[in-house]
Backbone:
């Protein structure tokens, strides 16, 4: 699946501030036999998005109508830790997530993001909390890669480094 380069992303941001979300949670092992990258987004966070009867878990953030179509995900510390499961990045991209913002990332996950075009940005926790406040008030945020900044109107501006 090819994605074109981005200069900026404007979207609602889905807040999932859970620390140590690993690649097994992002993309469960039982779906690893699916060899195509297309349509694997349906398995993203599968065990959290659905209950044991495969019914939608209405309490899960990505099932909340406010975050339908979110292209930005706000994560907790050490997002994407664990195995080298590249499928986790593929599933995020196929689902429509183009950027993950968190205080820190698993090293292998971050490398897989670089290899596959998923933008990952580390920000301090206090800045992340402000982004969560904005997202919970149904406001969009913009991640501008050209200027290396995240902003929401005049309410917030965060500078970041991709290195």
Residues:
């Amino acid at each position: 699946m090819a994605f074109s380069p981005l200069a900026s992303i404007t979207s609602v941001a889905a807040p999932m501030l859970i620390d140590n979300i690993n690649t097994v949670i992002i993309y469960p092992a039982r779906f690893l036999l699916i060899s195509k990258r297309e349509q694997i987004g349906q398995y993203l966070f599968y065990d959290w998005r659905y209950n044991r009867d495969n019914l939608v878990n209405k309490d899960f953030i990505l099932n909340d109508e406010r975050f339908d179509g979110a292209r930005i995900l706000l994560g907790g510390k050490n997002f994407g830790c664990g195995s080298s499961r590249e499928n986790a990045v593929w599933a995020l991209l196929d689902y429509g997530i183009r950027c993950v913002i968190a205080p820190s990332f698993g090293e292998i996950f971050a490398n897989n993001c670089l290899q596959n075009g998923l933008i990952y940005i580390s920000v301090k926790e206090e800045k992340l909390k402000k982004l969560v406040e904005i997202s919970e008030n149904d406001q969009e945020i913009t991640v501008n890669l050209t200027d290396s900044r995240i902003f929401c109107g005049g309410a917030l501006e965060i500078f970041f480094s991709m290195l």
